[in-house]
UniProtKB/TrEMBL annotation:
This is Cro/Cl family transcriptional regulator. SUPFAM superfamilies: lambda repressor-like DNA-binding domains. The lineage of its organism: Bacteria, Bacillati, Bacillota, Bacilli, Lactobacillales. SMART domains: HTH_XRE. CDD domains: HTH_XRE. InterPro entries: ComR_TPR (IPR040799), Cro/C1-type_HTH (IPR001387), Lambda_DNA-bd_dom_sf (IPR010982). Residues 11-66 form the HTH cro/C1-type domain.
Length: 303
């Protein structure tokens, strides 16, 4: 009896039968890099449904021909990942310990059996925690060096792309020297209509990434397109009834208003300050004070 082929062997054989190189299958590498395909073919990683669909299309075979190797993700893992993503990087420091516990459970019980895309997601989430806990962007370097170039080529994002973007924006938030206005404007523009491509249950995370993106722009004295993205975020919050970031959004509105009607903004800020202090966002308030000291006298750049 012949031994059953692995998923990696199947796609490798199909690719070679059709005379396709790995580079031809991967194209511009936005959806699948050559390195990721090599790992799949060698059996070093497991495919996600998205990758199976992409490969079926690229190899010109029906989806069911590649589906045998697909298994659903464990419910507990999905729940843990959701809990890690739900608060994003703008949360009180007390959340760090809880997030570390979630990650420990994932690494101990699920990580080794996860598809590569999910392992990447978990590793990015770990980088979040490391950067957030230490305030050092160096802990995000490895994931950004490996995956950021793929995200930068895209205009439509999947959830892993948004995870990478959240890590990238938070590193910019901590270190203004990393800020590139052209790259930033590209991402800001792309975020404006991403809700059209995401399942509704993932829009909460798009809101999280957009809020961090806005914070980065304001902290770097850059506000081209910020007002439009703020409006979009508020629209999405209303649509999903998800208001967890509302105090921060109010503060960001206050930053823009500060330059136009300072006395009104000062009164508004006092109310927002109390609200943010009560829910543990002292770091956000500190960043605002730094911003006010740096930009309020000379004004924000409009382009």
């Amino acid at each position: 009896m012949s031994q059953k082929k692995t998923f990696g062997q199947i796609i490798s054989d199909l690719r070679q039968e059709k005379g396709l190189s790995r580079e031809m299958v991967c194209g511009d590498e936005r959806e699948l890099s050559v390195r990721q395909l090599i790992r799949l073919e060698k059996g070093e990683s497991k495919p996600t449904l998205t990758k199976i669909e992409y490969l079926a299309d690229g190899l010109g075979v029906p989806l069911y021909q590649l589906m045998e190797d697909y298994t659903e993700l464990p419910k507990r893992y999905i729940d843990l990942k959701y809990l890690l993503m739900r608060t994003g990087l703008f949360g009180p420091p007390t959340l760090i310990k809880q997030k570390e516990q979630y990650l420990s459970e994932i690494y101990e019980n699920y990580y080794d059996e996860l598809p590569e895309d999910e392992q990447v997601a978990v590793d990015v989430l770990q980088s979040w925690i490391d950067v957030f806990a230490t305030g050092k962007t160096v802990f995000g370097n490895q994931m950004l060096e490996e995956y950021f170039h793929q995200v930068k080529q895209k205009t439509v994002y999947q959830i892993n792309d948004l995870l990478i973007l959240e890590l990238y924006f938070y590193c910019l938030y901590l270190d203004n020297r990393l800020f590139d206005p052209n790259v930033y404007q590209h991402f800001l523009t792309c975020l404006m209509d991403q809700d059209a491509y995401l399942p509704i249950e993932q829009v909460f995370f798009l809101i999280t990434v957009a809020v961090t993106c806005i914070a980065v722009g304001l902290n770097n004295g850059y506000c081209k397109g910020i007002g439009q993205l703020l409006k979009k975020v508020k629209k999405l919050m209303k649509q999903t009834q998800d208001y967890q970031h509302l105090p921060i959004i109010r503060l960001q509105e206050c930053q823009i208003l500060w330059l136009k009607k300072r006395k009104w903004a000062e009164r508004w800020y006092k109310k927002i300050q109390l609200s943010l202090s009560e829910i543990g966002h002292e770091e956000v308030l500190q960043k605002f004070e730094e911003w006010r000291e740096q930009f309020v006298n000379k004004g924000l750049r409009q382009s």
